[in-house]
Amino acid sequence: QSYCHRLQHDMYFLTSTSRLNEQVVDKIVLQLNRVYPQILTNEEAEKFRNPKASLHTRLSDLLKHLQKKGDRHCQEFYRALQINAEQLFNDLPSRKILKTPDPTEIDTDKEQYMLNDRGPVFFLACFSMAAGLALVWYCCNSETEVIGRARRILGFSPIIIGRHVRNICMLYLEDMSRN
């Protein structure tokens, strides 16, 4: 992928609010003005450093100007961005694409969200099902005297499970104790 295409891809990310501040943009413009070969002429550098224009406008104009100039100019912009704002350079969308060249590779950030997309209701439903099955298994075990213990546990659990569910469980335990 050419640097011009990468810059076009990263343009929205770079021009969004509070990504680049005035000082960093000025440093980048000065570096592009002073690097060999000179990417920006003195007049162009003054235009892109004009404090009367908004930062968003100056940065957008600079990126469009560099795209028109060609791939070498865009490459020098990326080099200046890396030197002056390395963290932002590493967070660029085009850099993230370059870091995962294999399309079959699993992106761990997306995978983390995909595993956790069910929400707390799903967790509570699964936990309730497991607790219910454990209670039934515990109550159906004929080797120990479970009925008395289970009755004590269910008797003190109006907060944990609802009153109607508790009454049904108590009736079931009383039926089991009669049999």
TrEMBL record:
Membrane protein topology class: Single-pass membrane protein
Protein origin, superkingdom: Eukaryota
Chief location of this protein within or outside the cell: endoplasmic reticulum
Record text on subunit structure and interactions: Associates with BCL10 by CARD-CARD interaction.
PROSITE patterns the UniProt entry points to: CARD
Entry coiled-coil feature ranges: none
Residues in CARD domain copies: 38-96
PANTHER family found in the cross-reference section: CASPASE RECRUITMENT DOMAIN-CONTAINING PROTEIN 19
Matching Gene3D superfamilies: Death Domain, Fas
Organism: Copsychus sechellarum
Single GO cellular component term: endoplasmic reticulum membrane
Compartment(s): Endoplasmic reticulum membrane; Mitochondrion membrane
Keyword set, alphabetical order: Disulfide bond, Endoplasmic reticulum, Membrane, Mitochondrion, Transmembrane, Transmembrane helix
One GO BP: regulation of apoptotic process
UniProt-listed InterPro entries: CARD, CARD19, CARD_BinCARD, DEATH-like_dom_sf
Protein name: Caspase recruitment domain-containing protein 19
Membrane spanning residue stretches: 120-138
